[in-house]
Each structure stands twice: as structure tokens, then as C-alpha cells.
Write a structure and sequence with these properties.
single chain; 304 residues; alpha/beta; Rossmann fold; 3 domains; 6-stranded mixed sheet; 4-stranded parallel sheet; ABC_transptr_periplasmic_BD; ABC_Transporter_SBP; Hemin ABC transporter substrate-binding protein
């Protein structure tokens, strides 16, 4: 029986006998009971998206998780949970097999056909939008916290993360020699795929006090050897890949070898979910990246 039906029936029975004050108390009890029942139902959560999983753990609500996706690598305990696959290549049947009553899903999950099936199922689904900014991180925390009915924990986590971000950004902006950086997603096929503006890579580079040399591009775009040499990056950045130990070879490749980064051996490799996740750990990622930049800047000649 729905909440409105309960309220109407109870109101109808008590109206001839009870005063307004008693009715108000009774209706409040009914609403509270309905909210408690809703919270009780949200006990089997699937988290699809690394930052969402990290937020669930940061809210100390991990006991509700029954499955995660393959991007959910932190904390390590999350990797022990059943896995529903890569967030951009989901199977609706695989997700539903975990019998969730609530799905937290990062914007951009797919394919569309699978997401449409999940949205049509009789399961609560909270889709969380992505925004590569401190404000976007706080908004994620708020959406996840509200979905899990944890108002006090949500406000506490938001306050902590905001303070951490403010301090990390101030720390990074003390960088006296902002470096020119290229973020390479992949180097195969003859034309490296690099990050332009409106990407997590661009945002974290800027937050850490450096400059993205391909900010004139939007999204991830392939570039020519000539464009790379002309951009003259002082640092090449990449995401670490499991089982790969040859990423430093990129600095020897045509184009890269003729940049200041290649000539000076300036390569930064960091874990993708940590660096680009835009979640509770982003403040520390900004600090770590800023420290890498500062170390490189000490051996880079001052700009004239």
C-alpha cells in the first residue's frame, strides 16, 4: 500500500474523533515509517563508476554494496565484490543478476540499450552527472549521499573534501614555473591521442598549476608529429597500465623525442582512477601531481 493511500485511510478514520494536533502527530509518524521503509529497501546497491564507489566507502556505506564495475579499484576491498563489467560496456542482464534494489550509475555508462533496460526495470536508478571541477566533486557526494539517505555523513564528507580541495589548489598555485604539459591517452596508430579542454585530464593539469598545450582542442583528439613538436610540451603525462613497463619508450618516439619533454626525459605516469576520477581522493592527486611538476620545474630553465 502506498504512502498516500495509508495517509488518506488513516485520516478518514480519525477525522471525526481526533483534533488537528493529534492528526499532525499521527501523519508525521506515518511519513517517518514510510521513509524508514524506503531506507530499508536500499540495502542492495550496485555502484557503476570509480568515483561513486569511492564516495560510498567514504560515507561508510560499503555494507550496502553488492557489486561494482571494473573501474572501481579503490579501496582494494571493492575489488573483492562481484563485478558487473566495464561501465561503458554493460550487460543489463549481468547487472540485474546481482538482484539490486538501487543502482548508482555514472553519467556516460553504456551502451544505451543496456542503460535503457535498467531504467525500465522496477529498480531505483540514480544517474550521477560528471563535472571536472571541485564543485562537480561536491555535487557527486551530495547526490550519492542523498540517494543513500545519509544527510549527516554527506554534509561532513562535503566539508572535509572541500577543505582538502581548497588547500590542495592553493598549494599547487604556489608553483612559480608553470609547465607546458601534454596528456597522452594512447600513442598507437601513428597519431597520439591527446587530451584537450573539457576533459578530466585538462582539468587536473590546470588545478595542479600547469598548462595543457592542447587546450585549443576539445575532448580527446589525435595529433600529428608536427603539431606535437610545435606545441613543445615540457612534460608528457600518461595513465599507468596494468602489465605495461614500456611507457617510458614514448619519449623516444618520433615527435616526442624532439620536444623539451623528450629531450629532458620528463614523463609522469599516474593511475587513471586516482588522477582522473574526480572523487574524494582528488585533492591528494592534485598535490601529488603538483609535486611532480615542482620536481621537474627545478631542472627546467626559466622561461624568458
Amino acid at each position: 500500500m502506498g504512502l498516500l493511500t495509508k495517509v488518506f485511510n488513516s485520516f478518514s478514520i480519525l477525522l471525526p474523533y481526533a483534533g488537528a494536533a493529534l492528526l499532525s502527530v499521527f501523519l508525521g509518524m506515518l511519513i517517518g515509517q514510510a521513509q524508514a521503509e524506503t531506507m530499508q529497501q536500499d540495502q542492495r546497491i550496485i555502484s557503476i563508476g570509480s568515483s561513486l564507489t569511492e564516495i560510498v566507502y567514504a560515507l561508510n556505506a560499503q555494507d550496502k554494496l553488492v557489486a561494482v564495475d571494473t573501474t572501481s579499484l579503490y579501496p582494494e576491498e571493492a575489488t573483492q565484490l562481484p563485478n558487473v563489467g566495464y561501465m561503458r560496456a554493460l550487460s543489463a542482464e549481468g547487472v540485474l543478476a546481482s538482484n539490486p534494489d538501487h543502482i548508482l550509475m555514472m553519467e556516460g555508462a553504456g551502451p544505451t540499450t543496456a542503460v535503457d533496460v535498467l531504467k525500465a526495470a522496477s529498480i531505483k536508478l540514480t544517474e550521477v552527472s560528471e563535472a571536472y571541477s571541485p564543485q562537480g566533486i561536491l555535487r557527486k557526494i551530495e547526490v550519492v549521499g542523498n540517494a543513500l539517505h545519509l544527510p549527516a555523513q554527506t554534509q561532513a564528507l562535503k566539508a572535509k573534501v572541500k577543505a582538502d580541495l581548497d588547500e590542495a589548489i592553493a598549494y599547487a598555485q604556489e608553483q612559480s614555473n608553470p609547465l607546458k604539459v601534454v596528456f597522452v591517452i594512447s600513442e598507437g596508430g601513428g597519431k597520439p591521442l591527446v587530451a584537450g579542454r573539457e576533459t578530466g585530464a585538462h582539468a587536473v593539469i590546470e588545478l595542479a598549476g600547469a598548462t595543457n598545450v592542447f587546450a585549443n582542442l576539445r575532448g580527446y583528439k589525435p595529433i600529428s608529429k608536427e603539431a606535437l613538436i610545435a606545441a613543445a610540451p615540457e612534460v608528457v603525462m600518461m595513465m599507468s597500465r596494468s602489465g605495461s613497463s614500456r611507457q617510458s619508450d614514448i619519449l623516444k618516439q618520433p615527435g616526442f623525442s624532439l620536444t623539451p619533454a623528450g629531450l629532458n626525459g620528463n614523463l609522469i605516469v599516474m593511475a587513471g582512477a586516482y588522477l582522473l576520477g574526480f572523487g574524494p581522493r582528488t585533492a591528494q592527486a592534485i598535490r601529488d601531481l603538483s609535486d611532480h611538476f615542482a620536481e621537474i620545474a627545478t631542472k627546467t630553465p626559466p622561461k624568458s
